[in-house]
Amino acid sequence: MLEIYIYLIIFIVVFLLRYILFILGKKKRKLNFNLEKKYLENKFDISKYKLSSNYINFVLSLNDAFIITVTLALTFMITNKMVLQLLIGVVSMMALIFITNEIIGNILKGKDK
């Protein structure tokens, strides 16, 4: 039960930090360049103006927090060996990034029509 609380706290902290970075980055930079937004724009042909809202920043922050928390949970639950944890972490993080970005892109593409 303690592990669930730890993962929940990690999820909340990562989400808040990522969302604050989105907000601060938007204020400091005039171009507002974000690699995730560029990926979604180019791959799914979504308009640039559709991805510039706070809603998208919120969704991408939730996505990043989800990916980091699930990767952390998988690596520590499966094994205690450091090399195997590193391998599981890298593979699961890459898989989750591609899977969740595909899901988000398809949802945004459906809303764009």
What can you see in these coordinates?
- The protein has helices at 2-28, 35-44, 54-78, 82-112.
- With 113 residues, the protein is mainly alpha-helical.
- Helix 3 (54-78) packs antiparallel against helix 4.
- It is globular.
- The termini are far apart.
Helix-residue proportion? over 70%
Main sheet record: none
Low-pLDDT residue intervals, each spanning 5 or more residues: none
Strand content: under 5%
The shape, in one word, is globular
The averaged pLDDT comes out at 86
Number of helix segments? 4
| End-to-end Cα distance | 44 Å
Taken in chain order, the helices and strands follow as HHHH
What structural category characterises the helix and strand content?
mainly alpha
Rg is 16 Å
Report the strand count.
Answer: 0
What distinguishing features does this structure have?
4 helices, mainly alpha, 82% helix, single chain, globular
Q: In a nutshell, what does this entry contain?
A:
With 113 residues, the chain is an all-alpha fold.
Record the SSE blueprint.
Elements: H1 2-28, H2 35-44, H3 54-78, H4 82-112
